[in-house]
Amino acid sequence: MTEEIRSQAEQLKELLVRSSPLIEEYTAMVCPECSDVCCRQKHGTFREADRIYLGALGIEIPPSDPERTPEGPCQFMGPTGCVRPRWLRPFKCTWYFCEPLLAALNEGPQKKARQLSAALQEMVDCIYQLEEKVRKGEESEIAVK
Ligand code: SF4
Ligand code: SF4
Question: Could you say which DSSP state residue 67 is in?
Answer without folding.
Answer: T
